[in-house]
Design a protein that fits this description.
With 109 residues, the chain is mostly beta strands. 0% of the residues lie in helices and 36% in strands. The strands form 3 sheets. It has a 5-stranded mixed barrel with strand order 1-2-3-4-7. The chain has a two-stranded antiparallel ribbon with strand order 5-6. Strands 8-9 form a two-stranded parallel ribbon. The radius of gyration is 13 Å and the shape is globular.
Length: 109
């Protein structure tokens, strides 16, 4: 779960390596989870981002748990297109859905 002032790792090659959450877009809530749009500050600039992975455990329907060791964000433009052209690291299935992030020309590694 991501809240304001959380430091996140940037998972694409757009430039900055880390970013700090400064706002959560959408209906008012305290935490953002995987797939939510947030506003981040990195290297003195303000970007929009989509939360790609969280440290908190997530339970799958088969009973197993998934935990990732970092909080990650993908920087996007206001229309939803990614700023970088490559995405590194682990992406959740929810982020890969077309209505959340359009990965048309983006190469995932």
């Amino acid at each position: 779960m991501i809240q304001i002032r959380t430091v996140l790792k940037v998972l694409d090659n757009s430039g900055p390596k880390t970013a700090r959450c400064i706002g959560i877009l959408g209906p008012p809530k305290k935490f953002a989870t995987v797939g939510d749009k947030i506003v981040v500050a990195a290297e003195g600039k303000v970007y929009h981002g989509i939360v790609a992975c969280c440290k908190v455990e997530k339970k799958r329907p088969d009973g197993s748990f998934v935990r990732i060791d970092q909080n990650g964000v993908i920087l996007v433009e206001s229309n939803g297109k990614p700023v970088g052209n490559r995405v590194f690291g682990v992406l959740s299935d929810r982020v890969k859905q077309p209505e959340i992030l359009s990965l048309g020309r983006v190469k995932t590694i």
